[in-house]
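U., I forgot to send this yesterday:
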Amino acid sequence: MRLSKLIGAIIFLLIIVGILGAAPPPFKPLADVMASFLSAIILFLFIAFIVSLVVSLIRRFSKPSPPPRPRPRYAQNVRPRTYIPERRENRVTLPQDYPTSNRTVLVSGRRTNMYDIVIKVLNKRISYYVPASIRYGVFSYVKLSHNIPGFSINLSGSVCYLIGEGAWSKVYLCVTQSGERYALKIPRTLSLESLESSYSQTASIDDTVVDKIRREIEILKGLSHPCIIKLVDYSLQVPAILYEFADGLSLSYQRSQRWAPSLEDLLTVLIQVADALRYIHKRGIIHGDIKLGNILIVNGTAKIGDFNTVSKLLSSSYHFAIACTRGYCAPEQLMSDLRAKSCQLGMEDRLDVYQLANVLLALTIGDTIDGEERLKMTESDLRRRLINLRPIELRELAVRMLEVDPTMRPSMEEVLKELVEIYCNYVGVS
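Result:
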């Protein structure tokens, strides 16, 4: 019973008791009996009122408080804003050799070409993310008075803001006079101001850094996939690389803004990244550093970036991609015997499978399983660690992707197939 009704009943009975107390003498004995009976009811209702009030207060204060509004944790020189992108179909350009194989998945009782569904997902945009917008005039910036040597795209007059800095490089957002936005990557030891006037500083750049940039340029020139960051321009004189700008920055930035993807958005991101990795694996390339920070959001689409860690399949050396990001390392990146085994069998690409599983864990349970930790775990330990991962099909896929032995993991194409099946079962395909 609601508290208001209890109070109303008590007041009504009190009025009746008051009326009975004023009864004339002939009816006094009967009125007293009725008053006593009503008084007992009033006492019972009063006790019920007190109990209901206490229970209501307990429920109120024991309820989990609604999640606080995310406090902005700004990336350098950027601020977030809520954004729900409009949906737009058939916007991606597929590679000329995009597969048309008869690998099928079961959709609504019918066998459907897997890649027909993948193409639909490549055309999707995640329903919600937190884009970054520039705080013009607040932070320091560099205005380029001349174009960067070697660039065909004219950046003269562009305003460039520093938005990120890594171990050996830094990235600027350059806004041209016409309003176009690009991401400019240069060596960390090189100042942007020096690029216009002289090449004197380029001589002091470490040869290793120059080789990284040259290798990244050569790799990206040969890749064309809608979920790989687009190379816009480059210069070997400086050296410098110009990319399309990721308006959502990286998944790492999204998580710092408390972005929690729905199952549909999660599967969309995983399918887009898995298809891009399948594409580069077919070309004999391994990324080697798949993590939240290297998956970018460009206009609602997940894209792989940072290709300076790539290596070739069937390497003559067993020392491929040993350097990795702590928390995402595959066991074979830490154990030479596993590395040698995967190299001998041409399965080096399975390390990207392990790292993609860690991306899945980071986006769902908020944790990753580094290769060093995985080597000490049994399968039972692993399953207990993933107990909160839903749906169960996604959990079982993650268990197989996190196998210690790289030869026991599924290929990226097999991972893609299972992700598509989960997508069809839980999201559906229109």
